[in-house]
Amino acid sequence: MPFCKRTILPKDLCRRRRPPTDGAAAGARAESTSVSFGDLVDVCGFTLCSVLRQLADLSRHSVRILEELEGDMVAVCRRSGALEGRVVSLQRHVAALVSKPPPPKSKT
Q: Measured at the alpha carbon of residue 74, what is the angle toward residues 70 and 80, in degrees to the nearest 5?
């Protein structure tokens, strides 16, 4: 059964948080409310930056997945090479046994 190794969640694109203020209660309140934008250009710029951040996170995750796959493929390649060596050795041993004349049968 496969297990989840990574959890990738989408982020809010157009929701900007207020900067943290002093005090724990004020900080908790500031996280729950969002700051409105002054202009549509600000919204577009902020959304574009958020999309680019998400793409960067996604590409980082994909690089990690591909590196993990590469490591697994290298391990499989090494194991298959070792198995190939064992099969070649077994073929040589069998060929040597076949090429020998059969032992004489003793009559009893």
A: 140
Q: What residue spans define the domains of the chain?
A: 38-99
Tell whether pTM > 0.90.
no
CA neighbours closer than 13 Å in the CB half-sphere of residue 44: 3
Residue pair 39/2 in contact by the 8 Å Cβ criterion: no
End-to-end alpha-carbon separation of the chain, Å?
61
Quote the CA–CA distance of 40 and 43 in Å, as a whole number: 5
Q: What are 80's two structure tokens?
A: 């298959």
Element (H, E) at 44: helix 40-99
What is the structure's pLDDT at 95? 92
3-state secondary structure of 17: strand
Section 78-82 average pLDDT: 98
Asked if 71 contacts 54 with a C-beta cutoff of 8 angstroms, the reply is no
Say if residues 2 and 16 touch (Cβ distance below 8 Å).
no
